[in-house]
Amino acid sequence: MAHVPAAERRPQLIKAAIDLMTREGVSAGSTRAIATELGVAQATVHYTFGTKEGLYRAVMEQLTAELLAQVEQAVPEDAGFEETVGTLASALWSTVREKPGHHLLLSELSMFALRTPALNEALESHYRGVVEVTARLVTQAAERAGQPLAEPAETVARFFLSGFDGLVMQRLTHPDEEAEATCLQAFIASVVALARGQLSLVAVPAF
């Protein structure tokens, strides 16, 4: 087999890992299995990524980048704040409907990373990046619409992501089209209400 530069082999291995683990789960994603998926030597995986954890981190980054790119492309150029938030949420939700396996894989990788010290920093960096991108989109939407934010953009972003993660888990475990549509609309309304200072915040007692 002709030599392929690491720069070209890297995206091929990431795709092979995504394809394999989407079908069979993270537990099936050994470096040997991923190498077999692409038809290369196992040493190629280690040469390209160093470790299996390095490959897993690259997979998380690739999946997230693809999802965020699809959402950013949907951002309306001239719309009110509520409409913009709704468009962003709907665009992200469409990725769940179109590629549920990728969202399941991201969830699996996150749980795996929590129990893998070598991936703890990668997971923290991953979520920090997602929060930063979401906060930027929220800020831009507010600025375009002339909508002052009642809460910091990062707070709104974290609220958005927390609620969306819950909707995704419900979709993966117990899909219900009608209930999901209602919950998505309620979720969008809650995000907008928080951003506008119209959502009542209840103090949580210390235990």
UniProtKB/TrEMBL annotation:
Residues 30-49 bind DNA. It comes from the Bacteria. Gene3D superfamilies: Homeodomain-like (1.10.10.60), Tetracycline Repressor, domain 2 (1.10.357.10). Pfam families: TetR_C_31, TetR_N. It comes from Streptomyces dysideae. Residues 7-67 form the HTH tetR-type domain. Keywords: DNA-binding, Transcription, Transcription regulation. The keyword Endoplasmic reticulum does not apply. This is TetR family transcriptional regulator. GO terms for molecular function: DNA-binding transcription factor activity; transcription cis-regulatory region binding. The keyword Transcription applies.
